[in-house]
Amino acid sequence: MFMLAVLAVVLRAATALPQPEVFRRACTSKGVVANFDTLDPPVPGNPLNPILDTYIPGLSFKAITYGSIPEVALPAGNSLVPYLKPNTPSNVANAGIVGKLSQGNPRISASNAGDSFTLKDFTYGCRIANLPVPCNFFLIGYTLLGTQKGAFKFSYEPPGTAGPQAMKSTKGNDNFDEYFTDVAYIQLTDVTDKDSVTSSTTVVVLDTLELTLNMCT
Which CATH class is domain 27-216? Predict the structure, then answer.
């Protein structure tokens, strides 16, 4: 009984001590639309431009870093991508084999350590050289701790047979949000043709990425 009484006194004293303040980061959110149209158009004779004019890995465009997606193309009026219509005129971003070889799988990241973002929508298409082609690819979302949230498969089929082809929107995809909510980065991988055969020549073309950026201090 004496030991129980002593224990009760110790517990009461412990609960009376000031408790350490719980650390909470201050976070703000803002909407970001990356359509790449404010970037410099390609120079004559070179239909591709780096996303940051002079692309330096680790730098960002609208607080988002585009690793291994270093090229912006102007589809209308050049010989490289004349048959994919950008969702918003007139630039698109290309994730192709050149970027993958130099920097690994293409990825989209929050620029500042500790920040995260939610990918809400984007438009996409695929091409080989100057022709739109059917394709499949995966996006994989990762948390701030590097944990994979899941992989989502996207498929593109040119909607017509003649003239510039429209890009496809992600709107309406079931369960799209759960893989790309509050992620630190998203990786693009496993690009295949329509028969799911790996294709090193297929380029995934992206436009109008709508994100919510969560910035914390």
Answer: mainly beta
